[in-house]
Each structure stands twice: as C-alpha cells, then as structure tokens.
Design brief:
- The protein is 39% helix and 23% strand.
- With 208 residues, it is an alpha/beta fold.
- It has a single domain (7-207), classed as Rossmann fold (3-Layer(aba) Sandwich), CATH 3.40.50.
- It has a six-stranded mixed sheet with strand order 5-4-3-6-7-8, sandwiched between helices.
- Helix 3 crosses helix 4.
- One of its GO terms (molecular function) is orotate phosphoribosyltransferase activity.
Length: 208
C-alpha cells in the first residue's frame, strides 16, 4: 500500500495546484499503481505485454481528485452531464461531478448499465433524468478497441441525449481513436501508452 510519503511531489496542495502539476502527478500515479508489464489477456481477448488497472488510480483519493480537476477542465462549457459504462467509469463520473460542484460548474453523473435493470424501471441509465437533447460527454478509464465507450454513447443517444465526445484517462492506441473518428465522435485522452511507458522508464532509472 502506498503511504503519503510515496505520493508524487506534484500532489502537494492538490486542490489548488496548477493543472500542469496535477497532470504530472496523475501520470506518476498511473505509472506507480496502475501500469504493469507481463503477459496479459485483455477484455477484448487480445494478448498484451502490459496491463493498465485504471481502478488503482480512479479509486485512489488523490487520483480521484486529480482526474476530477483535469477532466472538468476538458469539458465543453455547455456539458450537462458526464457518463460512462459500468464499472470502469463509475468512479470517474462521480469524481468529475463532485469536483464540478466545488468549481461552481456543476455537471450530473450518469452510469450506463451493461444490461437493463432487471426490476423497477428496467433502465439502462442510472442517474438524474435530463432534458431531451442535453449534452453528455462519455468518460472512460482505458481505451483499447473503443467498444465499451461506444456502447455508452449508443445508450445515451437512444435516451435522447446529445453525445459527440469521449474523453479517456489513457489511450492504448489500439484502434479506439480510429473507431470514434469513423462514428463522427471527438476523442481526447489525458495520456497515451507511450506517456506511461516513457515515464515508467524514467521513474525506474531514478530509483536505481
């Protein structure tokens, strides 16, 4: 378990630090907690020499605050809500919504179920009911093929919301961005896989 002394130095005064410092600190946190090298099979079925467990960062207190600040700054000013497919996006949309309230630019949080609720409203989407045409930005922790976030986009559009943008914490650069472009969706990521690999290498050299 990481103690406070091991946190990135950029996380000093996290609520008021510059966004550049927050971004550097969040990258270090991803490298220290989420990025692993080895032999893995991804949810897409692809084999990989590395794995990114984004929940190690999105469920971390400083990680949640850092990503909340950074993602809030990336949202269009007319965004009504952020949303994402459960389970990976759950802590992300929650963090962004909470930070947005502190910054007096409140946006709602929506969670998209993988299957319709089996009772009650039988809903796919959990969260406040917004006006038809409300602008929603889809959030994701790690994008590989892009299918998870695209499923969220489809459910939101079927519900009558306006969705034209996806933002991810990390882009593995394995087809997701191309898929979104084909669908006419804007895509941004805080980091790509090369950012993580390069910074991990620097941190290892610094500790050797």
């Amino acid at each position: 378990m990481m103690d406070q002394s091991q946190l990135p130095i950029q996380f000093d005064n996290l609520p008021t630090a510059s966004l550049d410092a927050v971004r550097e600190g969040l990258l270090d946190l991803f490298c220290q907690l989420a990025y692993q090298e080895g032999d893995f099979v991804l949810s897409s079925g692809q084999k990989s020499s590395y794995y990114i467990n984004g929940k190690q960062v999105t469920l971390h207190p400083q990680g949640a605050l850092a990503m909340g600040r950074l993602l809030c700054a990336m949202l269009p000013s007319d965004t009504s809500a952020v949303a994402g497919l459960t389970l990976g996006a759950d802590p992300i949309v929650s963090a962004v919504s909470v930070v947005s309230a502190y910054e007096n630019k409140p946006v709602y949080a929506l969670i998209i179920r993988k299957e319709a609720k089996g009772h009650g409203t039988m809903a796919y989407i959990e969260g406040p009911q917004l006006e038809p045409g409300a602008k929603v930005v889809v959030l994701e922790d790690v994008v590989t093929t892009g299918q998870s976030a695209l499923k969220a986009v489809t459910r939101l559009q079927e519900a009558g919301y306006h969705v034209e943008e996806i933002i991810s914490l990390v882009d593995r650069q394995q087809g997701g961005a191309e898929l979104y472009a084909e669908k006419g969706l804007k895509f941004e990521a805080l980091f790509n896989i090369e950012d993580l690999k390069t910074r991990t290498s620097q941190l290892k050299k610094g500790n050797s």
